[in-house]
């Protein structure tokens, strides 16, 4: 069997999928946005694609699949989602309809789909970056501004007053004008979503759609408050401490939301907020959890004595296997996405051995490189690294993650200002 993995060349998960494929005896074909002018620069025999040029990229994938037939398709990250859906359709394998994939990566269409399905939703409207949103009669406070063309929490800001909103929009406009952002060419580059802020703790849900039915693998608590002004995610811990009834309600809401978008087959990563009465769906993405966070999930299977990774479960599902017997392990687990405290050049990291020695900590992985320019949210698109912990209960996991983080010290040099030419 062979699975096609679509990803950017900077995707953290590619190695994890490679390791999982070897264990599952599944061959991999990669389609990445690597340089198409060089002859296999990454030595992975990947198909060179451009996510902003789907027609040409699809032709390249179909041509490659003639020589190496594909049995399943997985998108890693938000950018490849549309091309993955079109590839699955063209190759006649499991996947989501392209219309559903397109809806899932457009924040406005997500909001409209959820509202049409009767799901609780905040008020929302689109604005042009050059418009004066403070004069719009639909505006209320507190509110949140979001760029349609960026993923995660990048560019997402809360405003409590008209003055804060003007500052947030000016900052977002500057971000959208940056060369690296314009180079993404998402087709949504100049559109901003304004919506009401939702109170309550936030949760992430990982699972899979099979023929339109959603199955949850895990609900993650996000114990750090995400109340703004920016929304940097830090800690995920599972299993959730929500009551069983509330967990079931969250899972049901994710299923309704995924079907409202038209998703049918493949991985699902969802986000929601839960207040005293309602579950508010924030997003349902047609891809697995990002970065290295998938390592926090480990599954047991009747015929296996070793732990099975999320990537292996998703690969087996993609090629048509029944994965209903794969169940997340009973122990609690968590990950900290190490936040970037300030802008500057990373010079030194101390305390890794001490952090790794904290009881229940499994691994400390620093992914930022020495002399790399760091940038915090809302402009940032990465983390300093990841801390993983596993224990008998979620409170022990949370304590281990916080203790390990406190053991780390990052020396970040202030950026040197560049004088403008006279």
Shape: globular
Give a short account of the largest sheet. 4 strands, parallel
Helix count from the secondary structure assignment: 11
Mean pLDDT: 93
Q: Could you name the ranges where pLDDT drops below 50 across 5 or more consecutive residues?
A: 36-42
Strand segment count? 22
Backbone CA Rg = 21 Å
| Main β-sheet, spatial strand arrangement | 3-2-1-4
Q: Please bin the fraction of helical residues.
A: 25-40%
- Please give the alpha-carbon distance between the first and last residues: 62 Å
Coarse structural class: alpha+beta
Strand residue content: 25-35%
Structure overview:
The protein has 422 residues and is α+β, with helices and mostly antiparallel strands. It has eleven helices and 22 strands. The strands form six sheets. The chain has a four-stranded parallel β-sheet, sandwiched between helices. It is globular and about 60 Å long. About 2% of the residues have low confidence.
Helix-strand blueprint:
Blueprint: E1 2-7, H1 14-24, E2 27-32, E3 47-48, H2 54-67, E4 72-75, H3 81-91, H4 98-104, H5 107-116, E5 124-127, E6 143-147, E7 157-159, H6 162-176, H7 179-182, E8 192-196, E9 202-210, E10 213-221, E11 235-238, H8 244-261, E12 266-274, E13 279-285, E14 298-300, E15 308-309, H9 310-318, E16 327-328, E17 332-338, E18 344-350, H10 352-356, E19 361-366, E20 373-374, E21 385-391, H11 394-407, E22 409-413
Parallel strand pairs: 1-2, 1-4, 2-3
Antiparallel strand pairs: 5-8, 6-7, 6-8, 9-10, 9-12, 11-17, 12-13, 14-15, 14-16, 17-21, 18-20, 18-22, 19-21
């Amino acid at each position: 069997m062979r699975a096609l993995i679509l990803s950017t060349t900077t995707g953290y998960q590619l190695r994890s999928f490679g390791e999982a494929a070897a264990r599952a005896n599944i061959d991999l074909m990669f389609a990445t946005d690597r340089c198409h002018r060089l002859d296999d620069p990454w030595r992975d025999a990947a198909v060179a694609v451009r996510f902003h040029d789907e027609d040409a990229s699809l032709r390249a994938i179909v041509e490659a699949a003639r020589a190496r037939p594909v049995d399943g398709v997985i998108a890693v990250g938000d950018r490849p989602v549309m091309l993955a859906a079109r590839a699955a359709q063209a190759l006649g394998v499991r996947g989501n309809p392209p219309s559903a994939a397109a809806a899932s990566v457009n924040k406005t269409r997500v909001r409209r789909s959820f509202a049409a399905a009767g799901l609780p939703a905040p008020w929302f409207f689109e604005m042009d970056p050059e418009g004066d949103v403070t004069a719009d009669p639909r505006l209320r406070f507190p509110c949140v501004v979001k760029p349609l063309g960026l993923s995660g929490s990048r560019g997402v800001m809360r405003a409590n007053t008209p003055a804060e909103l003007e500052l947030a929009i000016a900052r977002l406009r500057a971000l959208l004008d940056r060369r690296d952002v314009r180079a993404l060419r998402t087709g949504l580059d100049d559109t901003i979503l304004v919506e009401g802020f939702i109170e309550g703790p936030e949760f992430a849900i990982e699972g899979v759609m099979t023929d339109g039915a959603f199955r949850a693998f895990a609900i993650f608590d996000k114990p750090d408050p995400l109340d703004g002004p920016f929304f940097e995610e830090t800690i995920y811990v599972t299993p959730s401490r929500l009551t069983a009834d509330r967990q079931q309600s969250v899972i049901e809401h994710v299923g309704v939301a995924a079907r409202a978008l038209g998703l049918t087959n493949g991985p699902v990563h969802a986000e929601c907020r839960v207040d005293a009465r309602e579950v508010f769906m924030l997003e349902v993405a047609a891809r697995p959890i990002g970065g290295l966070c998938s390592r926090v999930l480990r599954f047991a299977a009747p015929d296996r004595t070793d732990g099975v990774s999320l990537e292996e479960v998703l690969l087996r599902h993609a090629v048509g296997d029944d994965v209903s017997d794969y169940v997340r392990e009973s122990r609690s687990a968590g990950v900290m996405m190490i936040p970037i405290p300030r802008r500057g050049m990373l010079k030194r990291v101390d305390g890794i051995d001490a952090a790794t020695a904290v009881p229940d900590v499994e691994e400390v992985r620093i992914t930022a490189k020495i002399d790399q320019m760091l940038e915090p949210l809302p402009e940032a698109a990465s983390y300093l690294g990841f801390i993983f912990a596993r224990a008998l209960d979620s409170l022990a996991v949370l304590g281990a993650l916080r203790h390990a983080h406190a053991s780390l010290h990052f020396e970040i040099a202030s950026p040197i200002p560049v004088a403008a030419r006279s």
